Amino acid sequence: MTDVKPSCLEGIDANGTDSESAVERTGAKPAEMVRFTATPEKNGATVESENASQLDQATLMATRPNGGWKAWLQVACGFSLMFNTYGLINTFGIYQNYYTEQFRFDPSRASLIGGLQSFLLFFANGAAGPLYDAGYTRLLVVTGTILIVFGTMMQSLCTEYWQFILAESLCIGFGGGLTSFLSPTVLSTYFTTLYPLAQGIAASGAGVGGIILPIVYRELEPKIGFPWTVRVIGFILLATLLLPVLFLQPRMIPGAGRKFIDKTAFTDWPFVVFLCGNFIYLLGAFTPFFYVEVYAVQNKIASADLGFYIISTMNAASAIGRILPNFVSSYIGPFNMLLLSSISTFVFAFAFEGAHNVASLIVVSAFYGGVTGLFFALQPVVVIGLCPDPKLIGTRVGIALGFISFAVLASNPIAGAIQSRGGFVGVWLWAGVTTAVGTGVMSVSRLMKTKSNFFMKV
Question: Which of 15, 80, 227, 361 could pair with 355 as two cysteines, CB 3.0-4.6 Å apart?
């Protein structure tokens, strides 16, 4: 299989040569070229270089360690960030039930709280990406941590709808948006061939958070009440976020005068087509996570308690799916692996229509959680692989996540409208069709990138 080696993933320097050529030019071994120290720049963001002025970012990318204690410490930081952003958002279903039962919020208004939170988690990446490229990593982590923890603590005091919008939707959503993209971007500066695996391990934090936090809520809320249960969750978030606050450290040289928008992205057609396919895919990919519990209970397939643990099963499978398949993604290519996961997504989305008993529903849910987990882990890896300039990684990832945020915002209301008219058959068909069409569009992007070579590793 022929390899495609984008500069951002394989360490090509500004002159189009690889790391060995960089060594020949300088007469130094990689360890001698870049002797990393912590040099504070711009609000605490670090530049790991002894002579940063003599190195460009491409040379740093060409000498990535692809392992070592510091690199794997960044993976732990990324795991924490995913746990406290996407993992936290995965808990909203239990909050929605409480809001409709205890505060008598209309279900559509209650779902808007979580919908806005998810939207901002993606949309705020568009503003945060250029700040990362400019060297403000520490500012992003600290500000995001404060907003997430503060918003959670304020959520415990809320009693009115507008208060939940401010605390949970705006505060937590925006705080998550400042930090959620940092895991794939920072890890791309440390890893080469192990990057998909490292990102998969970090991304599994979202699945683990989606398991642990709902169980904490379910066990504590009947005993100590809603306010103190939310505060306990807030303290868990604070404790786990201290890890990236203290140790997250990208290997990068901040760019001066970074433009807020990379205009070249809009004429990079493989990138544009890939984002369009992502958008369509995400219109339906989250739908089963929102509706499988309701489907199981309303159709008397499972009790309310078992329905809750079906969601936990999906999140557990999602965590596993983000890690195990990535052991082979470096051999067949992350883009190829992503397409395999998206094909499997629409197969299992259609399979929900045939799941009419507990056993079949659990099996389909687990497989669906696993393949979508793999997709979400590889999505930023592919975006970074399509980036032509390592200095624009944060901006490109921000553009991508900001764009698809509108698909996330529209997904749940569209599925709700379909469910009210066409029942759950319509919901599963919507999930299957959108993920299938999105897969087709992303396949076109891959063919554009490889010039129609079907056997190329990319």
Answer: 361
- 3-state helix vs strand vs coil in the chain, percent to 5: 75, 0, 20
Place of tokens 């997430």: 148
Q: Provide the 10 A C-beta neighbour count for residue 197.
A: 21
The DSSP element (H or E) to which 455 belongs, if any, is none
Are 251 and 48 contacting, i.e. CB atoms less than 8 angstroms apart? yes
> Which of 399, 142, 50, 390 is closest to 254 using CA atoms?
390
The Cα 82–Cα 244 span in angstroms is 11
Distance CA 248, CA 424 (A): 43
Helix (H) or strand (E) holding 338: helix 334-351
Domain residue limits, the chain? 62-457
DSSP code per residue over 300-325:
TSS-HHHHHHHHHHHHHHHHHHTTTT
Q: How far apart are CA 417 and CA 135, in angstroms?
A: 43
b/e code 17-34 from CB counts within 10 Å (16+ = b): eebeebbeeeeeebeebb
User: Per residue in 22-73, pLDDT tens?
Assistant: 433 334 343 333 333 444 444 444 444 434 433 566 677 777 888 899 999 9
In 189-267, which residue ranges form alpha helices assigned H by DSSP? Answer: 195-247
Looking only at the bridges linking them, the beta strands covering 2-3 and 39-41 are unpaired
Q: pLDDT tens-digit profile of 216-273? A: 998 999 999 999 999 999 999 999 999 999 999 988 766 654 566 777 888 889 999 9
Q: Which CATH class is domain 62-457?
A: mainly alpha
Query: Which of 215-222's residues contact partners 24+ apart within 8 Å by CB, and which partners?
Result: 215/312, 217/91, 217/94, 217/95, 218/94, 218/308, 221/98
Residues 6+ apart with CB under 8 A from 50: 34, 35, 36, 37
CA atoms in the 13 A half-sphere facing the CB of 393: 30
- Please check the confidence at residue 301 and state whether its pLDDT lies above 70: yes
Percent of the chain residues topping a pLDDT of 90: 40
Show the tokens assigned to 251.
């290997």
- Dihedral, CA of residue 350, residue 355, residue 358 and residue 360, to nearest 10: -70
